[in-house]
TrEMBL record, chains A, B:
PROSITE patterns: HTH_LACI_2
Keyword Nucleus listed: no
CDD domains attached to this UniProt entry: HTH_LacI, PBP1_LacI-like
Transmembrane segments: none
Gene3D superfamilies tied to this protein: 3.40.50.2300, lambda repressor-like DNA-binding domains
Transcription keyword on record: yes
SUPFAM superfamilies: lambda repressor-like DNA-binding domains, Periplasmic binding protein-like I
Protein name per its UniProtKB record: Substrate-binding domain-containing protein
Coiled-coil stretches noted in the UniProt entry, renumbered to this chain: none
Length: 359, 359
DNA sequence: CCGCGCGGTCAAATCGTTTCGATCCAGGTG
DNA sequence: CACCTGGATCGAAACGATTTGACCGCGCGG
């Protein structure tokens, strides 16, 4: 019980050895408060003789009442969540900003959709704030667990949560802009490849009833933005923002679904990964882009492997979003009342969209 | 000073309200030790009346002497490190296994190569063990910082470190196998696209002197494996395992570097991302794969966007590697002496390698 | 009838640090 | 020479929990 000689030296032992009080020794390390350089050196010398490696973070945290840890709830296992460059870039901005304040990021796997149990880390891990990067469902078990524990929450890209700052993107306006671009090029038969709807991941065309279930953000916002301009001739739902799902969807949409004469002349996808999959499917079907079909994405990712095509996409400031999330966390910890914001997005035309083919 | 009425209720207050001692109240929550169901309910009731949300992790951690946190040092900012699916998959396996023990993963950005300062988290954050996933340099400042703090370390994919278990892959054998495959197909003019060498990232052909500087793993191991079978006609060094770098390298190697008659007939890349870039470059140059040039990668990633090509690659059990790292961490915490291992790898032929073109 | 053992409860010691307020001392001022 | 000021140091009280060993009835076997 700590009586073993092998247990690490403590500040008290260092102080004793240096012939000063514990409080003074603490001062020598924390740097705050007045202390003679001479005394400090004495303490530091004693510390190094004893092999003391600096104040124990656990003691410090308890005393301070802060862990210096920010829990980041990722949508799923990292293996899936981080296959999406969008999540990665947001995380990057977040880590960067939090790093400037010495805050660390603790990775918390979100719920396995369909499971009711949440990760034990959510219930027990020490964290000063939690960030929900990937949106919030209605009746989100993750959010509930955090609120039960009174952990302050910052929400990225979801519906607003009582008392929690929200950092969003102007999804709806962006989606509308992308579709307007297609309409201006003359397209009328526009197909939509959508992100997951929420609970119950599936793939395939969505009917009106199913469309009404899309409660996850940003899916719902992007759907709304598209419909602000035009009604898609078909909406193909996917289980995740991955290239292979976009490819599967577009293979159906462009291939067997309808006779060639009624084939959609343009596809708008909810994400660049889905759009890239659509581009690949079109290539495989022998269609020229954008002569036969136009394809627009959403995210503004840099996808060198899609070469020579460059996606027409809606650029989002993703690292900036992560950074804003970080700022919100910091403000929250400083006791300030942080404000929600929506970051602007903008269409960046590439080579994958062009005038509607003359028939 | 905790004298404010707004401060959270503590176990002591709950105990007082329930009319029991603090120790009994603790028992009611921790579940260990004998306690009458009746008493437990009394405590739980008092807790919910007071809005007590369970034992404060900070207090618990201090008492236990454990934080339940595993620091994972990623090579760089997440934005760069996680663009590599290899790192992501390893992390995935790691998080999964640690999760079963209630251990959380704290993300720690590695050093900015060239900077001498390490991330403050490395110096101050609470962690029971640290994992270096992405290899260790000789004289690694990150490793030094951890050793100075007496934090136990588990190393993935690097050189062995005194007292730290190592979880590696049979890189050398795998690389040799890939090249042997090319040689058996008749290739003799084989070019190598390599991972970063270590400090000082650059891109371009590497001369003998430069080759000697490759001290980072797994680069060094893969280079050695390749040379166990054949000497590459050229080694092109890249600053990171990214598609665009592979593309740039292959554009040079296959294009302008030598007259077409002396052009390498095969390329072996140290990673699948680099190899994928090479495939794209070959396509852009109008070369057929594998008729004009064979390309082999390393990692065994699933790259749907490379369709219709499927990379010939050396499959690595990446999630398994992460899981083993996790096990090593758990063993270390249990006081057992964990052992180092090297996981087997195996060649998986795809469509990107074929017989040497007849000239 | 006595003592033993056992399940449930409690008191007290720790874990290692930070910080508030008090103390002490040297040096400058009236 | 006494007083005051301000900087350096110190003591002690938190911070919030876990855990050990003692304690205390009570039921049962001898």
């Amino acid at each position: 019980m700590g009586r073993t000689p092998s247990s690490r030296p403590t500040l008290a032992r260092v102080a004793e050895r240096a012939g000063v009080s514990v409080s003074t020794a603490s001062l020598a390390f924390s740097g705050s408060g007045p202390i003679t350089p001479e005394t400090r050196d004495k303490v530091l010398a004693a510390a190094s003789e004893l092999g003391y490696t600096g104040p124990n973070p656990l003691g410090r945290q308890l005393r301070r009442g802060r862990s210096g840890i920010v829990g980041v709830v990722i949508g799923d296992h990292p293996g899936r969540a981080f296959r999406d460059p969008v999540a990665v870039q947001v995380l990057d901005g977040l880590v960067d900003v939090l790093g400037t304040e010495g805050l660390g990021v603790l990775l918390i796997p979100g719920v396995d959709l369909g499971q009711d149990a949440v990760d034990p880390l959510l219930e027990t891990a020490a964290m000063d704030v939690a960030v929900l990067v990937w949106g919030v469902l209605s009746e989100d078990p993750t959010l509930n667990a955090l609120q039960r524990r009174n952990v302050p929450v910052v929400v990225g890209e979801g519906r607003a949560v009582e008392g929690a700052p929200l950092v969003a993107l102007e999804d709806r306006a962006g989606a509308a802009e992308a579709v307007r671009h297609l309409v201006e090029l003359g397209h009328t038969r526009i197909a939509e490849i959508s992100l997951p709807f929420g609970r119950g991941e599936r793939s395939g065309p969505a009917d009106a009833e199913r469309l009404a279930c899309a409660d996850r953000t940003p899916t719902a916002h992007r759907m709304a933005g598209i419909r602000d301009v035009v009604d898609p001739v078909i909406t193909w739902e996917t289980p995740a923002s991955l290239v292979e799902h976009g490819r599967d969807a577009a293979t159906e949409i462009l291939g067997t679904w309808v006779p060639a004469s009624e084939r959609p002349t343009a596809i708008v996808a909810h994400s660049d990964l889905l759009a890239a999959g659509a581009v690949i499917a079109a290539r495989e079907l022998g269609l020229s882009i954008p002569e036969d079909v136009s394809i627009a994405g959403f995210d503004g990712l840099d996808l060198p492997w899609l070469s020579p095509d460059v996606l027409t996409s809606v650029h989002q400031p993703l690292r900036e979003k992560g950074a804003r999330l970080g700022r919100a966390v910091i403000d929250l910890l400083a006791g300030e009342e942080p404000t929600s914001i929506a970051l602007p997005v903008g269409l960046v035309p590439g080579t994958t969209t062009g005038p509607v083919p003359r028939t």
